[in-house]
Amino acid sequence: MIARETAAIPSFAREVEEGISGFPKTLPCKLFYDATGSELFEEITRLPEYYLTRTELAILEEHAAEMVRAAGQNLTVVELGAGTAAKTCSLLRALTRRQMRVSFFPVDISPAALGEARERVSAECPNVSVRPVVADFAEGFGFLRDIRGRKLVLYLGSSIGNFDPESAVKMLSQVRRELAAGDALLLGTDMVKNPSILVPAYDDTQGVTAEFNKNVLRRLNRDLQADFDLDAFRHVALWNPIRSRMEIYLERLRTQMVTLRLLQLTVRIHVGERIHTENSYKYTLPMAHEMLRDAGFNLERSWFDECKWFGLHLGRV
Ligand code: TRP
């Protein structure tokens, strides 16, 4: 019998091939979130340096009542990229105090995360009816049309910051197109601040973020039968004030050939050469205003923490 290689070529193979053979080298950020990556990210959200998650949660807890009052009456809540919906309960609870029935549609690509979301919300807000939606945003936002009533769409975290400004507007416009007059969007943005706060948030002393970044290479080793030596790379996080973003790289410590067997590809990566793995854009209020306006939303109100490190913006259709 002839032994044949039967390993399936993953859908991201072409993107990896293009990114790793080009110059400057890049890798698609979707590689971050396999099971290990998702766990490492959870760990990042608990790091002392990573102020984002806890700051946003505090804003939501403090202003939930005001937020739902400003958003309108008889709302159905839809959360894009809900994950396990760990930040949503204060808003949902505030809503149950204002209306008889609250429906919550957490939307995510991961059925496992949605299962957790359902359990969490059912336990913490028993009066809310949870209806998980499994969807890949690459396929559009058509699912929004099937949800009836006036909608409050949540896009929390700083995920919008992982899009280039043009792509962010494109994505929000797509959402906007599925909404009706009176519907609202509550959008989280991490705000521009001193680099002495920003840089450690993406380069912590325990090295969890470095592990998270290098996990991308571990994934290529596994899924594309590559031979990246993880110790030959250094995690780099830089603030780019001109583009208003944190830039995340993997920098090569010595020149070496790397082979990606499934792609039948060998590349030379030089000492000091950087592979760009992610951007995280930081917004000012005028930038957030412009982004929402360009996507067809009217910015009605923003909420911040005391230091103005993180913002939640209410955009109206
Ligand atoms: N959305 C998160 C952010 O931009 C993702 C993230 C946190 C991240 N730390 C990272 C992405 C380090 C790449 C590398 O804050």
Give the terminus-to-terminus CA distance.
Answer: 63 Å
State the secondary-structure class: alpha/beta
Instruction: Give the assembly state of these chains.
Output: single chain
**Strand tally:** 14
Largest sheet: 8 strands, mixed
Descriptive overview:
With 317 residues, the protein is α/β, with parallel strands linked by helices. It is 34% helix and 26% strand. It has helices at 13-21, 35-45, 51-71, 89-96, 111-124, 165-177, 195-201, 208-223, 285-294, and strands at residues 25-26, 75-80, 102-108, 128-130, 133-134, 150-155, 184-190, 233-240, 245-252, 256-260, 265-269, 274-281, 298-304, 310-316. The strands form 3 sheets. Strands 2, 3, 4, 5, 6, 7, 13 and 14 form an 8-stranded mixed beta sheet that branches. Strands 1-12-9-8 form a 4-stranded mixed beta sheet. A two-stranded antiparallel ribbon has the order 10-11. Helix 2 (35-45) packs antiparallel against helix 8 (208-223). The radius of gyration is 21 Å and the shape is globular. The model has no long low-confidence stretch (mean pLDDT 95). Residues 44, 52, 157-159, 161-162, 202, 209, 212-213, 248, 278, 280 line the site of tryptophan.
